[in-house]
Structure formats: structure tokens, C-alpha cells
């Protein structure tokens, strides 16, 4: 069961989790990215590419389900304005055994960072700035290449 | 054939609009050629496209490099490196 | 922030997750083990070593917090009788960056499988049986040795 | 000094009780010696301890191997390999 969503509403972690359990899964792994208040960030604005984003997320989820024989994969990404401590993204994977769920979860968040069309803009006391990509994200995504 | 050009993040801000519909002229072979043609308009376009190393593209919602063949797309998106997650 | 618990009540995933977010975390990784209905299992009974279990879980959580500089680690293990689909164990880790949270989460569930005094007994249509440990669990725990 | 001996899972079931308090006799050097002394009682004890490769132990809540020194513990636990998580 694959589900991807891009939504301006807050992410309900309990509901996300419940949606991927079941179906014979023995383990559910999740990763949730949170807005950090680093460097005086007071808000984060997430922009995305409607249509293109969903297609990219679905392609990643389908890859992970095939590669790790998952029973479920779910990616929910928030867009719009959010505050420090709020969840930006939820990735959840379910599989019969834990290693598959854990690896696939790490894979999805690493690849999402480099392959899905989202852009972050931080609001600070002094104004706004677009976030630059981190080189470590490219390295993290590259480690999954066969 | 009309092509929808989409701009995101600071590319959108510098150009001052989120999208426009263009009849692509003849002679544009790659995505990079389209970028050069747009940049030649000057102003916000020149500012948005001044550093090609910080520019990414998608043709009909598929990520491509700037040297990819342009073809006859319905939709081209131009944007900075992504920073989601 | 370290919290470990052994509890006969169902695990509330949303509450567990909320308890480890915050504190400057940029990412939360979780693993939840579920009761599988394999081979006609109709119920699972979890026995533990009161006192010894909590000490073992706390020692594991403390190791993980030190090794990965976590902002939080939480292990909640259910005991008593439970049904297929229900959560047996929740492991949650939070850190400034995602790699630390993801690795620490995998570490904790691998080590918990071999180092914490819990025993599973399955109820099947024909009776009950104690679950044998899996050799793959020892291998998974061993890969974390320095 | 009295020592509390705890049994878990099928060790507990075979012996037929969860714990007992014992004054350890002299001459027990290792945890394995304690196990042999208990097994010599026969019955459920012999059944519980017949396969040492499937037996694990903790002294005062610390996991130890069967060849670990017994010392003068407050609490010894004997149980099968763990299967939590």
C-alpha cells in the first residue's frame, strides 16, 4: 500500500502511523523531520511543484516497496508556513521484518532530500532567506546507488 | 505549440512570476538553450539565470540536466536545487 | 531526555512520538514492532524480568544517547497478552540531524532483541509455545560492535 | 546470606515457580555450579536445566555467562535466551 501526500495542514503522526501498520507487517519504521529554530529561525515556508512533487514522491515510494518488499510506504510532506517544532515531513515504511522497514525508511528520507521538488525559505528576525542545499544530502542520497 | 514554463523559489521571485506560456522559437536544442534564450530578455530573467550551477530543470515533470534535449514539451520547470524533507 | 517503560497497556504511538520531539531535534526516527499473525498465532504473551528489564533498557538508551548525541531516546515495551496487529515495542530517537536519529533507532531495536530480558509465548489454535530466538538477531546486534 | 533465585519463561514453567530464596551452600564457584546444584534436585529442575546451551543468567540484574564467578549475590536469575522486541 503506497500513499503520498502534500498538505498544508499539520501532520498527524498517530494517524500516519496507523495507516501503514497492518497488512501482515511485523515492523514499522518512521522518520519525521521537524522545523529547527537554528540561527533564530522563527518560521519556515515550504514551496513545492504541484503535480511534479506527488509524482516524484510516488516514484520514490514505489522504488522502496519493490526494493525492500514493503507491505506499505507512506510519505506526507507539509507545505506552506510552519513554526519551529512542527513536522515538515513524515516517512513511514512497514515490512514483515525490521531490517527492511528501517533501511527503506532511511532510503526514502535521503532520496527525498535530493529528488523531490520542495524549497525551504526561512523567516528570521531580520528578514527571509532561501535555504541552500547541503552537500551532505547529496552524499547521503548517493550511498544508496547500486 | 505552446509550452508552460514554471518557476519556483528564488527563480520565481527574481523573474517575478510563477509561470508563463511561451511559443518556443526554433533553434532551441537543449534545456540550457531555453535558459539562455530567456536570460537574454534581461532584468529578472538575467538575475534568475546568472548562475547555471545553481539551476535545475524538469521537462514534463521529469528532472533533467541542462544539457538534456528540450524536445517539444508541454511543461518546463526551472528552479534552484531542492531543499525539502 | 531518556525514558524507558514496561507497561501492560497498549502503546499510544502519537503520545510516544510527541514525548521525544522538541528539545532542538531536527529529526525523529521510530521503530514499532507489531504482533504478526504468522502460522496461525492468535495471541502473544510477553513476560519480562521486573527491575532487570528497565535497567537493561535504560543502559541501552544511555549508550545510544552518548554514541549519537541524541536529544532524546525512548523505549516503551508492552508486556502481558496482546493480539496480532498490536504494538509490542516502540523505540524512538531524536537528534539534530537525521542520520544520527535513524542509526540510533536501528541500534536500539537490534540490541534490545538480544540484550533485554523479555520472553515471548505464542498462543496458537492448538496450544502455546515459547518463541525461540532467531540467529539473525544475534547477527544484527553484533554488527554494532566497535 | 540468603539469595533470591528467579526463573523466567519455560525455566519458570518447568520448575513450577517464579522464585525461591536459598542459602547458597559453600563450594559453588560459578553460576554454572549453582545450576548443577539445582539440577541435582531432579524433577522440574533437571528438566529446566538439561540443555545448558539454552540457558542464560543474570547476577544482581547484570547478564553474565554461566562460567562467571557466582560471588555472594542478592539475586540470581536463570532463563532462556531472550526474545523481546
From TrEMBL, chains A, C:
Q: In which pathway does it act?
A: Cofactor biosynthesis; molybdopterin biosynthesis
Family matches, as Pfam families:
MoaE
Q: Which InterPro entries match?
A: MoaE_sf, Mopterin_biosynth_MoaE
Per the UniProt entry, the Enzyme Commission number(s) are: 2.8.1.12
> Sorted alphabetically, which keywords does the UniProt record give?
Molybdenum cofactor biosynthesis
Q: Where are the membrane-spanning stretches?
A: none
The reactions it catalyses are: 2 [molybdopterin-synthase sulfur-carrier protein]-C-terminal-Gly-aminoethanethioate + cyclic pyranopterin phosphate + H2O = molybdopterin + 2 [molybdopterin-synthase sulfur-carrier protein]-C-terminal Gly-Gly + 2 H(+)
Q: State what this protein does.
A: Converts molybdopterin precursor Z into molybdopterin. This requires the incorporation of two sulfur atoms into precursor Z to generate a dithiolene group. The sulfur is provided by MoaD.
Q: Which PANTHER family match?
A: MOLYBDOPTERIN SYNTHASE RELATED
Query: According to its UniProt record, which protein family does this protein belong to?
Result: Belongs to the MoaE family.
Q: Quaternary form?
A: Heterotetramer of 2 MoaD subunits and 2 MoaE subunits. Also stable as homodimer. The enzyme changes between these two forms during catalysis.
Q: What is this protein called?
A: Molybdopterin synthase catalytic subunit
Q: Highest lineage ranks of the organism?
A: Bacteria, Pseudomonadati, Pseudomonadota, Alphaproteobacteria, Sphingomonadales
Automatic annotation (TrEMBL), chains B, D:
In its keyword annotation, does this UniProt entry include Nucleotide-binding?
yes
Pfam families per the UniProt record, alphabetical? ThiS
Keyword set includes Nucleotide-binding: yes
Tell me the keywords, alphabetical order.
Answer: Nucleotide-binding
Q: Which CDD domains match?
A: Ubl_MoaD (cd00754)
Q: Which InterPro entries match?
A: Beta-grasp_dom_sf (IPR012675), MOCS2A (IPR044672), Mopterin_synth/thiamin_S_b (IPR016155), ThiS/MoaD-like (IPR003749)
Q: Which domain of life is it from?
A: Bacteria
Question: What does the sequence similarity comment in the record state about its family?
Answer: Belongs to the MoaD family.
Q: What's the protein name?
A: Molybdopterin synthase sulfur carrier subunit
What is the species listed in this Swiss-Prot or TrEMBL entry? Sphingomonas immobilis
Amino acid at each position: 500500500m503506497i500513499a503520498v501526500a502534500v498538505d498544508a495542514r499539520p501532520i498527524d503522526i498517530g494517524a500516519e502511523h496507523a495507516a501503514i501498520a497492518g497488512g501482515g507487517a511485523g515492523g514499522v519504521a518512521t522518520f519525521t523531520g521537524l522545523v529547527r529554530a537554528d540561527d533564530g529561525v522563527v518560521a519556515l515556508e515550504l514551496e513545492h511543484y504541484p503535480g511534479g512533487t506527488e509524482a516524484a514522491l510516488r516514484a520514490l515510494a514505489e522504488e522502496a516497496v519493490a526494493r525492500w518488499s514493503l507491505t506499505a510506504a507512506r510519505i506526507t510532506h507539509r507545505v506552506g508556513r510552519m513554526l519551529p517544532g512542527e513536522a515538515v515531513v513524515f516517512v513511514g515504511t512497514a515490512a514483515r521484518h525490521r531490517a527492511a522497514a528501517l533501511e527503506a525508511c532511511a532510503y526514502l528520507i535521503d532520496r527525498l532530500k535530493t529528488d523531490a521538488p520542495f524549497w525551504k525559505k526561512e523567516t528570521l528576525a531580520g528578514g527571509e532567506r532561501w535555504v541552500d542545499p547541503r552537500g551532505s544530502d547529496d552524499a547521503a542520497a548517493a550511498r544508496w546507488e547500486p | 505549440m505552446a509550452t508552460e514554463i514554471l518557476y519556483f523559489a528564488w527563480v520565481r521571485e527574481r523573474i517575478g512570476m510563477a509561470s508563463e506560456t511561451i511559443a518556443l522559437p526554433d533553434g532551441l536544442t537543449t534545456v540550457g538553450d531555453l535558459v539562455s534564450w530567456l536570460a537574454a530578455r534581461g532584468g529578472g530573467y538575467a538575475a534568475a539565470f546568472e548562475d547555471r550551477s545553481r539551476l535545475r530543470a524538469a521537462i514534463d515533470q521529469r528532472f533533467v540536466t541542462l544539457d538534456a534535449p528540450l524536445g517539444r514539451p508541454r511543461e518546463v520547470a526551472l528552479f534552484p536545487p531542492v531543499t525539502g524533507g
